[in-house]
Amino acid sequence: MDSATSNAQDRNVARHLPVDRVREILIVEDHPLMCDALALTLKISFGLKNVRTARSLAAAQEQIRDQGAPDAVILDVNLPDARGAEGLVMLRRQIPDVPITMISADLDNAMIAAAMAAGAQGYISKSLAREALVASLRRMWEGERVTPDSYVPEDAGDEDAAKAELARRFSSLTPQQMKILRLICQGKANKEISYELSIAEATVKTHITAIMSKINARRRTQAVLLANSVRLFEPA
């Protein structure tokens, strides 16, 4: 079963939410079988009537705009349009007070650390047994921060606080700026970004200036290093 970790310096811990107040959950998962299994498990275990699902970050964001915020979110680390901490960072901007649980088969220590620093309420493995999954979610919704037993927290309180602040700055980027930053991290030049996003090169430059200002970076290489330090984008 997962173990809880706490960090008093973390500014991103979600609000305490009694389990009986969790009536509507949004699962963001692109694998149909995994998504359906999770939805069924939550309906049975918590007596939920409404479990919403989305197969991509964009679909989740649109659904939240149209239907309002859920009581809790379960978010896959790797989605078709967001890999790594990007999905978490973008959803935290949209629903800052809703507890978000990251779920993945990837239990890489650095990825878990990045997710927790970016404000995840917890990080759980897709291989968890049903009882362990339900117990972990219950603890998270009651205010605990839950991570896998194999996770070893990085022994650097100041560094954790710095990563949390950096994640907050990344969350200030607009969706278009996040797309441009992702392409920058892929090594694309302004002209290539202009072509890929069907926008003027001058517009790309304007967005890049805004990105650099928001994340406090002076050069493209520094922006890439900052994004990599919080595992914002993961390679496909």
UniProtKB/TrEMBL annotation:
Residues 166-231 form the HTH luxR-type domain. The modification 4-aspartylphosphate is found at residue 76. CDD domains: LuxR_C_like, REC_NarL-like. It holds the Pfam family Response_reg. GO terms for biological process: phosphorelay signal transduction system; regulation of DNA-templated transcription. Keywords: DNA-binding, Phosphoprotein. This is Response regulator. GO terms for molecular function: DNA binding. SMART domains: HTH_LUXR, REC. Residues 24-141 form the Response regulatory domain.
